[in-house]
Amino acid sequence: MASAETKNFSSPDETREFKGKGRAEFLTVNGRPVSKGTFEPGWKWSVNLRPIAQTDSCQVEHLGYVISGRMRVVMDDGTQFEVGPDDLFALPPGHDAEVVGDETCVLVDFGQVGQYATPPAS
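Structure tokens predicted for Cupin domain-containing protein:
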């Protein structure tokens, strides 16, 4: 049986800065990474994370909950949708995303975020 474990994002295990306009803070709980992303107005995956990920679109699977702000997601097939406060979302690999409006978007991601905002392995 796994043991109980608590952590707090005020003391993250790791912080990964985007190429401007935000960061992702990570906690590992019972061996599973969880991130809290802070995406500032003007942030766009293809501008601020593509240089880090070195892929044409985001290849991370996300399972997230939006705390504040709004984000627009554009799938590789052209499908678009927005998420905002109190929205829970599941997002497969193959997308771009951008902050909508002038409010910072903050969300918690329980998806496959272990390698999010890191360069590809050599």
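The mean pLDDT is 96.
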